[in-house]
Amino acid sequence: MLKRAAAVLLKACPLIALTSVLAGCDSSDSQRPQPSPPNILFVIMDDVGIDQMTVFGYGGVGPFDVRDSNEQRPTLRSPELPNIDSIAQQGIMFRNTWAMPACSTSRAVFFTGRYPLRTKVLGALGQYDLANYQVSPYEYTLPKLLKTRGYESGIFGKFHIGLQQNNPFEYTMPSALGWDYFYGWLDETGDPSSIDTTAGLGDAYQGRYLCGFVPGKDQDPEYGADTGACYSGDGQCTQMSGEGGIPPGRACRDSGGILAPEQRCEASVPANIQAGFDSLSGHYVSPLWINDENGQAEQVPLTDIRARTFRGIAHVDSAIDWITSRPPGTPWTASVSFASAHTPVMQPPQNLLSAPAAQPDVVSRLQCAAPEGATQEELQRVAIDQRELTTLMIEALDAELSRLLVSIGAATLNDDQSLSLNPDSNTMIIILGDNGTLGYSVKLPFDPTRAKGTAYQTGVWVPLIVAGPLVNSPNRAVEDMVNIADLYQLFAEIAGIENVHDVVPRALDSEPLLPYLATPTADSQRQYNFTQVGNNQQIGGAINPPCSLGSSCSQIPVSKTVCHDNGGVWWGAEPDQPGVPAGGYTQCCEVNQYQYRNEQTMFTLQPLSAEAVRNDSYKVVQNHYVGNPNPPADEYPDCDPVDTTEFYRIDEAEHDPLIDRAGSDLINPATGQPEDPALQPVFADLVNQLNAILDSVQPCPPGPPEGYLATIDGNQDGVINSEDLDNLEGFAVAGGSSWYDVNESGTTDALDYRLVNDYLGIECQYE
């Protein structure tokens, strides 16, 4: 199937034409030597919002200010990021950058230059999402575009724009989307697995070790250990005892091994330990995949040290190896996607921690999850600890970034351990947060109740840093609006591709960023900014089931395990709550109906989808619910659609920005208009702009009959023709989900063929 699909794709994608267009632009200069365009290092920080960044003027210590005086715990603080801070001071900080509210959604945007309404990647990908809601191989992704300028492209770490499920390319999706090399994770969600609370010791230990390793006796007198046998995946064993305050269980985990607590090394690996090498463990043990230069996929065995290494270390190792092996004179782009701030939070390797609060004996006491039946006090303690663990994980990211830059020659390490960028490396460095911070890790004065997953400021406002040889007058900040879609155009500009909107035969939503690099006085490139989030579709129009998180109910978590990793209660199939049908509920409003019937407090509903638009000073947010988001306590909740429109004044003031908090909506509920008449034209303009963006996508064919959920022109080349039929036939060999599963049944079959055939010759207008 994969070979057939790949052949169809090569036939269908007009990259040869694109190459010709670009070559034609440079034909007059073809006879004289051209300087090599800069290399591009793209660093993606998962779940790191601008609230974490002191160098941007934020990074307050909240939201928790409670302390247990009986236990030694780090002071609540902001991440100490000397390396990222140094790069920012040697480059440009874009202080007004919007991402999309979810991981997959943002990645699809900056790798295609197109808003979610065009890519259809509306939310974080999950294993049941159809191919139509994963990035299409017919998109002009950045690696495909840059290849026309001779770039080789590698991506390392988290991928998350195409999963192996419901995808005809399965584990070769990075190659299908244009990357020459991939080293990272393509497991169930593309995110770190849940913590293995057995510490690799088998099911009998389930729930015993909430951080994934055996703690010391001082932390867990009953189940902890101060000695033990540390087995590695190749069968080797090392006798260990706690040194330097690090419990042997943690030191063993850091080395990629499994500790047999208080045991001596045996001649053969104990059976339960051997079985443990097949278990997954958060940021340490996950299915690792490689796509090589020939497009072949290789899975690294879980016994291999590469698959058992902390993710940040593993993908930096692989990026260094790939970058330093590039042929001289061949430009490259390397996307290094850190997942180490993403849930589940865990203690990073001790050798990556240098902050004053990161003492081994202190860090190892931090709790990663709450035990079953935890009291409210215990839950509060865990929340504090998880916030500190997030800080430590971001600091570990910073340490690995330094190693990456020095190892590839993009920076030098000074005697005082500071970084100096190396202009001779000819490398542009771009650092980006992919969306806002997860709620419990948000730093004040940002809003933990309106964080990742929402279209509010805390959910979409992210750090963006650009440094390198094309930056004039470094050590400055840009206050103008930027969207992550603009990175697509920046990559093109760095590669010397002019007029990318004319070159790429697709609707792009990107604006120029290069003028900001060239001159401090560049005019603003955007009048408006936009963000969007929603649910990807599954068979039959299904979406993610409900998950209650604290006092709210959300349908963002893609599975039961992800719900639990975020400290939630699952209400879908095999629900956590007794008395709920085994099949669970499909909507959060049904959860509230259950709560009402059982005389329990109902949840605040998180929107199923949302979009927002802003100008320099004001912002409109539209949220879409099924059911009343704040149901009255004395009324049985219904499941009718509810749409809200909110209007806020916002700014980016350092230390205390004006953000869109609850209670600051400028709309008068009685009139649906701002109370201040002077603001009514501003509000109307923003609503009109938002509607214009949402209406800019047209189906093909126009006005398809009800039930035609997908675009019939699967390759989006503007015409439904025999090429579409050939592509469909190629994907139909396996019969599963594809970008030609027109009726979104989960199967590419004869019905889809008939639907496409019925519309042969129809031309499409996508803009």
Brief characterization of the structure:
With 767 residues, the protein is of the alpha/beta class.
Provide a descriptive summary of the structure in words.
It is a single chain. This protein is of the alpha/beta class and 767 residues long. The protein has four domains: 2-25 and 47-193 and 283-532, Alkaline Phosphatase, subunit A, CATH 3.40.720.10; 203-276, no CATH class; 544-607 and 617-697, no CATH class; 703-767, Type 1 dockerin domain, CATH 1.10.1330.10. 25% of the residues lie in helices and 16% in strands. The chain has 21 helices and 26 strands. The strands form six sheets. Strands 1, 2, 3, 4, 8, 9, 10, 13, 14, 15 and 16 form an eleven-stranded mixed sheet that branches. It has a four-stranded antiparallel sheet with strand order 17-22-23-24, with helices on one face. It has a four-stranded mixed sheet with strand order 20-18-19-21. Helix 1 packs antiparallel against helix 20. The longest helix is centred in the middle third of the chain and has 32 residues, at 376-407. It is globular, with a radius of gyration of 26 Å. It starts with a helix and ends in a 9-residue tail after the last helix. The model is unreliable at 1-8, 10-33 and 63-72 (pLDDT under 50).
Number of strands: 26
Distance between the termini: 33 Å
- Secondary-structure-based class equals alpha/beta
CATH homology-level superfamily of the largest domain: Alkaline Phosphatase, subunit A
Alpha plus pi helix count: 21
Label the overall shape. Answer: globular
Q: How does the major sheet shape up?
A: 11 strands, mixed
- The CATH architecture designation of the largest domain is 3-Layer(aba) Sandwich
What CATH calls the topology of the largest domain is Alkaline Phosphatase, subunit A
The proportion of residues in beta strands is: 15-25%
Extract low-pLDDT stretches: 1-8, 10-33, 63-72
Instruction: Tell me roughly what share of residues is in helical segments.
Output: 10-25%
Question: What is the highest CATH level, the class of the largest domain?
Answer: Alpha Beta
Number of domains: 4
Mean pLDDT, to the nearest integer, reads 90
- Report Rg: 26 Å
